[in-house]
């Protein structure tokens, strides 16, 4: 890990800096130490170690290195021997908060009048390998999970959808800031070669368009699907479920080609930008934009800086984003690809203006701008609904097969499956023939033949009616209440 203290106007390091570095995970302190560095560029080695029996994780963290002779309690960073932090740091997937305080600079004996504080987040992903199975073979995919690892991932040729399951304690939804996963799929995967966007459901409930972001630009060989659901939306979904569940069941489906629009902008300095945006306007009022910047040679413009603004049809500018550093104008994009959620007050026509301000720490001689028109239309979220049928007719959405398979395989427990099926029936998503409910069961014991039916149905060995007979049995026994 590298921490650098520098003058942004000249891009030169501030020398002889005393740092206090604190690292937090899930609100708990896991590391806290002072360091001194002569050239202002602090190098640290972090060795994650999960074994910690202390209630306060920082007590398990150890620090190795040369003690500074002047700054009390500080380790010095010099040459090829950086200080080493060993403990429960970066050992789990998720978001770590890094807090750095500059408490002295230019001289080891000189302290700042008050601490200069900086904060940032470091996201640690757990990498998993899965395969998408089709009639033509298997395609390897990589998943980067930023919370708990996925317990399964499957592909359905019937709907060209990806389904995955992961553990999640819904009773803690209000304390979760973000659930994030990243699925990297080879560009050679035929079912997605003409796809430019995706939509999704979580436990059968439609997600906002902004929750599934598609990035075909960042990697030469893979397309990346970003799954990002905020804590606020998790609470909404939790309230809608009204069931005691300990898992997330997610389905990601190719979007209609008309939902995602793409435009190219050319700048007078030879740079180009490709802008993709979701035309649907929903309850969140956030429209997802992806900006990919290319240099005059056609390569991704790494370390580009840009700003943007949005005007309504009357010419009123209501969104301006110039980045967070007043001394270095623009949003820094290390990869050349950036995704933004822009809040749009209502459906209609708008103008987006992009301004390229520089690259890295250097400003362009002249800022260059280009603009484009875009429209958003009011589109209600698609629900997992089915056509109206006669009461005796069975209607089962295809994505429920994944849930049944996960239950049969032991990926999710009996209570999760039962509560999920109960919710789907009560919401009218899963339609089965009229069945009288029996008295509430004391044991909730599910016979093995019901689980076998679910597995065979998910595999296509038996038909819908056989699967439904198992559900009807659970209703009659009072295990499922409708």
How would a crystallographer describe the biggest sheet? 6 strands, mixed
Task: Give me the secondary-structure category.
Answer: mainly beta
Number of helices: 5
Shape, please?
A: globular
Instruction: Bin the helical content.
Output: 10-25%
Measured distance between first and last alpha carbons:
55 Å
Strand order of the largest sheet: 9-10-5-4-12-13
Q: Count of DSSP E strands?
A: 33
Taking Cα atoms only, what radius of gyration do you get, to the nearest Å? 27 Å
Number of domains: 4
Q: Assess the beta-strand content as a share of residues.
A: 35-45%
Report the uncertain regions.
380-393
Short précis:
The strands form 8 sheets. Strands 9-10-5-4-12-13 form a 6-stranded mixed sheet, with no helix packed on it. Strands 26, 28, 29, 30, 32 and 33 form a 6-stranded mixed sheet that branches.
């Amino acid at each position: 890990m590298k921490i650098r203290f520098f003058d942004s106007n000249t891009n030169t390091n501030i020398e002889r800096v005393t740092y206090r570095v604190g690292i937090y995970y899930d609100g708990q302190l896991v590391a806290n130490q002072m360091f001194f560095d002569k050239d202002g560029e602090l190098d640290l080695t972090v060795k994650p170690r999960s074994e910690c029996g202390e209630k306060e994780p920082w007590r398990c963290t150890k620090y190795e290195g040369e003690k500074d002779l002047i700054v009390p309690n500080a380790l010095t960073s010099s040459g090829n021997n950086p200080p080493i932090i060993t403990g429960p740091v970066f050992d789990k997937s998720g978001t770590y908060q890094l807090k750095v305080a500059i408490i002295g600079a230019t001289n080891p004996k000189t302290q700042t009048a008050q601490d200069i504080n900086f904060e940032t987040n470091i996201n640690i992903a757990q990498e998993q390998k899965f395969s998408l199975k089709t009639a033509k073979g298997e395609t390897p995919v990589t998943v980067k999970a930023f919370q708990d690892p996925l317990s399964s991932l499957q592909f359905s040729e019937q709907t060209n959808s990806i389904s995955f399951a992961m553990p999640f304690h819904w009773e803690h939804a209000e304390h979760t800031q973000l659930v994030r996963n990243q699925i990297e799929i080879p560009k050679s995967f035929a079912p997605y070669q003409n796809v430019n966007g995706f939509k999704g459901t979580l436990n059968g409930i439609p997600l906002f368009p902004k929750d599934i972001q598609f990035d075909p630009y960042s990697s030469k060989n893979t397309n990346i699907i970003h799954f990002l659901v905020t804590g606020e939306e998790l609470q909404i979904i939790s309230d809608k479920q009204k069931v005691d569940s300990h898992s997330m069941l997610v389905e990601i489906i190719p979007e209609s080609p008309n939902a995602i629009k793409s435009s190219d902008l050319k700048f007078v300095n030879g740079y180009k930008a490709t802008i993709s945006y979701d035309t649907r306007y929903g309850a969140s009022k956030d429209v997802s934009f992806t900006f990919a910047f290319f240099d005059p040679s056609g390569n991704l413009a790494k370390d580009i800086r840009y700003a943007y603004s949005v005007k309504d049809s009357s010419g009123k500018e209501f969104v301006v984003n110039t980045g967070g550093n007043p001394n270095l104008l623009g949003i820094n994009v290390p990869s050349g690809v950036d995704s933004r959620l822009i809040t749009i007050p209502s459906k209609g026509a708008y103008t987006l203006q992009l301004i390229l301000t520089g690259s890295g720490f250097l400003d362009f001689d002249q800022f260059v701008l280009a603009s484009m028109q875009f429209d958003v239309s009011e589109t209600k979220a698609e629900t997992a609904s089915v056509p109206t049928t006669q009461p005796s007719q069975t209607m089962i959405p295809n994505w429920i097969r994944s849930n049944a398979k996960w239950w049969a395989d032991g990926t999710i427990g009996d209570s999760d499956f039962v509560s999920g099926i109960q919710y789907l029936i009560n919401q009218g998503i899963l339609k089965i023939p009229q069945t009288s409910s029996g008295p509430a069961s004391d044991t909730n014991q599910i016979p093995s033949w019901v689980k076998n039916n679910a597995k065979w149905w998910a595999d296509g060995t038996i038909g819908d009616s056989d699967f439904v007979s198992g559900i009807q049995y659970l209703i009659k026994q009072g295990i499922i209440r409708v």
